[in-house]
Amino acid sequence: ITGDETWVYGYDVETKVQSSQWVGKFSPRPKKARQVRSNVKVMLTVFFDNLGVIHHEFLPAGQTVNRWYYLEVLKRLREKVRRKRPEVWKKNSWFLHHDNAPAHTSLLIRDFCVKNHMTVLPHPPYSPDLAPADFFLFPKLKYPLKGQRFSTIDEIKENSLTELRAIPETAFQDCFQQWKRRWQKCINQEGEYFEGDKSQ
Fold first, then answer.
1. Which residues neighbour 187 within 8 Å (Cβ) at sequence distance 6 or greater?
2. How many Å apart are CA 86 and CA 92, to the nearest integer?
3. Confidence of residue 30 (pLDDT cuts 50, 70, 90)
4. Cα(35)–Cα(164) distance, integer angstroms
5. How far apart are CA 171 and CA 140, in angstroms?
6. Is the pLDDT of residue 198 over 70?
7. Would you list the domain boundaries of the chain?
8. What sign does the CA torsion over 9, 167, 155, 2 have?
9. Tens-place pLDDT, residues 74-83
10. Which of 78, 115, 126, 130 has its CA 20 to 30 A from that of 4?
11. Coiled-coil region(s) at which residues (predicted)?
12. What is the pLDDT of residue 28?
């Protein structure tokens, strides 16, 4: 089970592909105003496995992601695993993966995981290519939202959850297969940095 946090914006700039326009051979290039991200934003935390999303939550206003907040997140995650994945919960056959953010790796969190018999998979530093949330979930979630404008936090939450729920189970399965290939490539290169999975 892997997870991370990300900001979701009231307005996020479209990609070059999304914002491209067809013009005739002799037509002047259209002028485009410079776009910037909205200041209206909310942080979303998501944990998922190869079957789909297990737990998600939005950061409350005024709260920061520190070790105390993340401790409560992990408690809620454990309850969701117990309810949504009863077989792996009963056998304690699941592993936790997160990156090396300070809130994730504090002594408080490490002690909590040890006391609750939670095996944490190591994550190489500065390796977004080995974090499924970074190379799969968050890009897939945010791409359809780019270019749309949401004026309130509630609108951002509603639309981001709509996109999150629209991701099919097969996409999560493909993600975990890709993750395995990326790990194998990292092992083959003895931990040296590499970029992406060219087979995708």
1. none
2. 9
3. low
4. 25
5. 10
6. no
7. 2-13+36-189
8. negative
9. 999 999 999 9
10. 115
11. none
12. 63
